[in-house]
Amino acid sequence: MNFKDQILEGIPDNLPEPKAYDESLNHAPRRKKILDDDEKKLALENALRYFDKKHHATLLPEFREELEKYGRIYMYRFKPDYDFYARPIDEYPGKSVQAKGIMLMIQNNLDPEVAQHPEELITYGGNGAVFQNWAQYRLTMKYLAEMDDNQTLVMYSGHPMGLFPSHPNAPRVVVTNGMMIPNYSKPDDWEKFNALGVTQYGQMTAGSYMYIGPQGIVHGTTITVLNAGRKIAKQGEDLSGKLFVTSGLGGMSGAQPKAGNIAGCITVCAEVNPKATQTRHKQGWVDEVIDNVQELAERVIKAKANKEVVSIAFQGNVVEVWEYFAENDIYIDLGSDQTSLHNPWAGGYYPVELSFKEANEMMASNPDEFKEKVQESLRRQATAINKHTSKGTYFFDYGNAFLLEASRAGADILSEDGKTFKYPSYVQDIMGPMCFDYGFGPFRWVCASGKEEDLQKTDEIATEVLNKLKEKSPSEIQQQMQDNIKWIKGAQQNKLVVGSKARILYADAEGRIEIAKAFNDAIGRGEIGPVVLGRDHHDVSGTDSPYRETSNIYDGSRFTADMAIQNVIGDSFRGATWVSIHNGGGVGWGEVINGGFGMILEGDKASEDRLKSMLFWDVNNGIARRSWARNKEAVFTAKRAMEMNPQLKLTIPNMVDPTLFD
């Protein structure tokens, strides 16, 4: 069968041959055994319901072995034999251009060049899944190939519940991931209910099909590092010769060394997984690899002396770096961490003094001891960081729950008040007041034709639009505009594309609408093919996350999730092609609610109407909330938005004179 026939086949009537487990691939860690005997039986029954009864006797022992060995039922036998990558949109079967675009994005999320653990359908973050198993993938792709624009596909945590009658202005797909009853959102609840096959961790852009590889975060990381450099600059100098130390070379964290190069500093990024390091080095996202901490120190001293711009992957544990550099007086200018501490007990953070293999074995066979090792390592890391910050290092939490988990481990990480952390979240210090409160966030697009020339054309269009907008932009956002113009001009030369022909930049509502409209006009003129619009959930409006996206909300509402829910509801009836809402994300299961969207531009008037309506709401919902929280930058942005659109009328807070409380 050809590719289209295999998509339309869905779950095959005849069983495919079992597949050998390929040890050379980057597989998800084995999950701990958390189900009792009755629950194991239930998990097996849940898995077998996807298949005709005639296959149950054959599949039962196979699925039981997967559950015992890996802690999950992935259904490896049913992974299709075709290659996974974002094909040109015309190569997908179907009646709906919108549905074909979603198939393209799903396959991009599972491209081995993009995905962290593709065999387990995990895109990034150690557990950020597109689907729970291969039956769900097959069935979903079949539904998308069969649907028309009067139907909506409903997705429950990776499971396609089915096609429902709908209408052309409704979303083609509505996705929910991990929507638990609140009292069942502890980490072990995820382990249990995911093992049962009834929920999944969609991360932020994995389970919503909007991941575009590490480029999706490299721009935001570049802005963060640049602005962190501006905060520590003594006389307006740049980052030349300054050292940035961090960790993680996985799906999202892998952007850090590339961002460091673009920002112009020396970057040391530690990674314990050799395959992740090899992947980033092969892709050119990190310049050098060193596995000896003394050799690393010598290389850094040389780079400082020569004011080199270089990124170095340390193949080892970041705790070694923090401690050795402290003992040997190697000054760190900027420090952070981007290991997946939202998932600390199942592969998101590896303790020092255990090999990668030993850690993977312990987390499955002795999870209690593994937890103790992780917490001991966090305490050591925090102690070493404190030594550096006492000498002037600027350390910031990168929204990966490092400070949160370190505090839970008993590390010396709290301020004198015993409530807040010693170090700010990067959102509190940088992205919140400098970007989100002004409406700037990670707007992205994918050229569905798969053509390099389409990506180049869209880069040119975006640059032209931004230059025009900058001419009339108020002084408050001139820096943001200039950073983005510089970014987009250098995007091609930095070779940022991994997987789909995608691009990202930070834009406000006005910028997103104008860029999207210019794309739609170009599609209508036949200059480029269809374009998929989207954003990271890490944005102005889509995510309620008290330790990251909304950490600079100080009116007491940062632990509420009204904004994220309103975001997805509003997007769904204003023209989004698909919407998604997730429990969990970069900071952990039960710690965040985040929502996203995707939109297909087809070059017609209907697409223009949808983009204008939805993109305006998608940003200004968040501006309204941030303004009401009394964030002065957001109050400015809210008033400006009302001037630009008279139909917008927001409730503006009255400021209280603090001397009244004296």
Automatic annotation (TrEMBL):
Pathway: Amino-acid degradation; L-histidine degradation into L-glutamate; N-formimidoyl-L-glutamate from L-histidine: step 2/3. Residues 213-430 form the Urocanase Rossmann-like domain. Its cofactor is NAD(+). Residues 85-210 form the Urocanase N-terminal domain. This is Urocanate hydratase. It comes from Gramella jeungdoensis. The lineage of its organism: Bacteria, Pseudomonadati, Bacteroidota, Flavobacteriia, Flavobacteriales. The gene is hutU. It comes from the Bacteria. Residues 436-639 form the Urocanase C-terminal domain. Its EC number is 4.2.1.49. HAMAP family: HutU. One of its GO terms (molecular function) is urocanate hydratase activity. Catalyzes the conversion of urocanate to 4-imidazolone-5-propionate. The keyword ATP-binding does not apply. It catalyses: 4-imidazolone-5-propanoate = trans-urocanate + H2O.
